[in-house]
């Protein structure tokens, strides 16, 4: 009797651990399935047809894995380590400071724009960084009659020849050249830039 109980327990121990390894299968994302357990880890079988990643997971490029994406519950940074440039923040995986979520891939955080010409996805990213700016062809550009200055790292209103000014960097020639300076509250030609008011 004791031996029978032992065999019985042994059987369940083996079966239990086996089923533990078989909680997921090998059907990749987009491949056919009948049950959730046919699909790879962190995936499910949608309408008994195809494997999809669970919520807060996204497929890798080759569809072979479902990796953490923004919004996944976490207790430490390791849980978010399959994301690029992410960390665990207030219990969910999120982009690190100065990174923003890739709109095409919720597991990928890309650098936020910080100056003119930096890569952007949407206009509000450029506005947050530079002020009067737009995202044009995936690059931050100042709106017209504004220009980017290193000194403030913002787009500021362009002051032309004889416009009022406070700082040298506000003044720009007609072709946005750096030929003017601010003297006595007015944009004027720099010393030695005698031709600056032509054109
Ligand atoms: C999304 O980004 C992650 C992190 O960079 C990468 O591992 C994954 O392959 C990307 N997914 C796709 C579909 O390109
Ligand atoms: C996202 O996808 C769109 C269209 O496929 C593409 O134009 C854009 O450059 C992509 N963005 C990034 C950050 O890769
Ligand atoms: C602005 O700064 C960048 C790097 O910090 C430098 O390469 C560039 O020449 C500077 N431009 C001006 C107009 O000072």
TrEMBL record:
Pfam family for this entry, one: EB
Keywords: Signal
InterPro entries: EB_dom
Xref: PROSITE patterns: PROKAR_LIPOPROTEIN (PS51257)
Domain (EB): residue spans on this chain: 106-151
Keyword Signal carried by entry: yes
Signal peptide start and end residues: 1-20
Alphabetical list of PANTHER family matching this protein: ECDYSONE-INDUCIBLE GENE E1, ISOFORM A, FI17111P1
Protein name: EB domain-containing protein
Species, as recorded: Habropoda laboriosa
């Amino acid at each position: 009797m004791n031996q029978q109980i032992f065999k019985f327990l042994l059987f369940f121990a083996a079966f239990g651990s086996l089923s533990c390894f078989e909680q997921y299968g090998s059907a990749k994302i987009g491949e056919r399935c009948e049950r959730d357990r046919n699909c790879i880890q962190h995936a499910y079988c949608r309408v008994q047809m195809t494997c999809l990643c669970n919520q807060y997971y996204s497929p890798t490029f080759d569809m072979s894995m479902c990796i953490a994406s923004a919004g996944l519950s976490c207790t430490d940074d390791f849980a978010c380590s399959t994301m690029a440039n992410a960390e665990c923040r207030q219990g969910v995986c999120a982009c690190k400071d100065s990174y923003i979520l890739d709109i095409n891939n919720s597991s990928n955080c890309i650098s936020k724009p910080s100056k003119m010409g930096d890569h952007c996805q949407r206009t509000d990213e450029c506005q947050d960084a530079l002020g009067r700016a737009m995202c044009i062809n995936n690059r931050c550009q100042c709106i017209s009659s504004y220009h980017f200055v290193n000194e403030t790292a913002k787009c500021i209103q362009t002051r032309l020849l004889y416009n009022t000014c406070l700082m040298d960097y506000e003044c720009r020639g007609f072709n946005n050249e750096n030929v003017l300076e601010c003297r006595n509250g007015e944009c004027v030609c720099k010393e030695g830039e005698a031709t600056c008011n032509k054109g």
